[in-house]
Design a protein that fits this description.
heterodimer; A: mainly alpha; about 80% helix; B: about 220 residues; about 0% strand
Chain lengths: ~210, ~220
């Protein structure tokens, strides 16, 4: 506890860095997965390649991908952007399937009814499909969010500072407290973010309340 | 793309193919750790998962446990286990086993649960014992999900074993961790590409296996 109090400024700073490295990839990943997943659910020819690519991408190990990215896009090896891009790729890979399944479960009758009531293609996509697919997509975002918070820590191995730095420092100094504090903060951050997603879901998708997403 | 040329030079340097730190030795180590970890985790998690799926008992606990374990940062667990248990092979392998259990457990109980209860009832009605129901009906029908769990577990171990090089484990992760320490980017990139190829090969093998599995 004394250590926590003495280092509170640093802990707050690391938590903020960890926070943006976790939130940005999930949000951008979702925005990219949305059109891809929608296309995968509507056009059968697009489905298999999109889902296969997502599966392959998701199977790539994190540390290697993290160090290959700067080689491909030419960023500096220590740039936090590499972490953000790697995690965005994972988020897209995970969410394309969720989004495709979420749109896929919107019943055809409902879509026909919307078309029959005079909805254009775009009105139907944004006014009917998106809200109905929302709860299932939110469930996917929550999974992506939890795993992203945990994956950010790997960035510490290549010198990108975040809460994972507490693990590498604690290990080098043989200081268990620092590692445990890091674990508690990472898991807490994952829980807090998860609660935020639930809250955002309540506000944006009030019709899903009381139903399991 | 000059960094990839440098990584290619690293690949084709003959000294990188011999001895303790040579590519064949590191690759075999990595595969060895993965196999060892997976076997131990399967022995622990699969019977437990089958029992949970078959009896429906402890299901809530299993779901909560697998969820909680997923949120735990791998690197934190690895560094902690070394500070607690010292260096050597056992601490990292223990951590890798712990991380491989959730997907295997989930695959096993979800596989059994995915079997239509009417099919299970019919098997019982034909006079099968509980063991026969499990071995001849539930396991074969739940096999696709069981294999899916094994696939995620193996890929998880391949990825985590790379990270475990940080706490002194051998294998392909050495190239990345040692390369970062001496800023040898060609070596980092070369080693990473081998891990990626290994992961893709294993993923492809499992995809094939799942397609061939009778379901």
């Amino acid at each position: 506890m004394t250590w926590v109090r003495a280092n509170s400024d640093r802990l707050v700073e690391l938590t903020w860095q960890h926070l943006w490295l976790s939130v940005v990839p999930v949000v951008i990943g979702f925005l990219l997965a949305l059109p891809l997943g929608w296309m995968a659910s509507r056009y059968h020819r697009f489905r298999a390649p999109a889902l296969t690519l997502g599966g392959v991408l998701y199977s790539l190990p994190s540390l290697p991908l993290l160090v290959i990215i700067p080689g491909i896009i030419g960023t500096s090896f220590l740039d936090p952007v590499n972490v953000a891009i790697t995690l965005t790729l994972y988020a897209v890979a995970l969410l394309v399937r969720t989004v495709a399944d979420a749109f896929g479960q919107v019943s055809a009758e409902v879509l026909d009814a919307a078309s029959a009531s005079g909805y254009s293609r775009w009105q139907r996509a944004f006014g009917v499909e998106l809200p109905l697919a929302g709860p299932a997509m939110l469930a996917g975002i929550r999974v992506a969010s939890v795993s992203t918070v945990s994956l950010v820590t790997v960035g510490a191995l290549i010198g990108v500072s975040n809460l994972g730095s507490l693990f590498t420092e604690g290990f080098q100094r043989y200081f268990t407290t620092e590692i445990i504090v890091g674990m508690v903060l990472v898991v807490s951050l994952a829980l807090v973010l998860d609660a935020c997603w639930v809250l955002i879901g309540r506000v944006l998708l009030p019709w899903a309340r009381g139903r399991t997403a | 793309m000059s960094v990839f040329n440098e990584a290619w030079d690293w690949f084709t340097t003959s000294t990188n193919w011999h001895g303790e730190d040579g590519i064949p030795h590191r690759l075999l180590q990595h595969i060895g750790y993965t196999a060892l970890t997976t076997v131990i985790a399967v022995v622990i998690a699969v019977p437990l998962g089958l029992w949970i799926g078959h009896t429906g008992r402890l299901r809530g606990v299993a779901v909560a446990l697998t969820g909680a374990l997923r949120a735990l940062p791998t690197l934190g667990l690895l560094t902690l286990v070394v500070l607690w248990r010292g260096i050597g092979l056992t601490p990292p392998i223990t951590a890798l086993v712990v991380l491989a259990i959730p997907p295997l457990l989930a695959g096993a109980y979800a596989g059994i649960e995915s079997v239509d209860p009417r099919t299970v009832d019919a098997a019982r009605g034909m006079g099968m014992t509980e063991w026969q129901v499990l071995a001849r009906v539930e396991v074969p029908l739940g096999l696709p999900l069981l294999l899916g769990g094994l696939r995620s577990a193996v890929l998880q171990v391949v990825a985590t074993a790379t990270i475990a090089a940080y706490i002194g484990l051998g294998g392909l992760g050495r190239y990345v961790i040692d390369g970062v320490a001496i800023r040898d980017y060609p070596q980092i990139l070369g080693g990473s590409l081998i891990v990626v190829v290994l992961a893709l090969a294993l993923d492809g093998a499992f995809a094939l296996l799942q397609r061939l599995a009778p379901a």
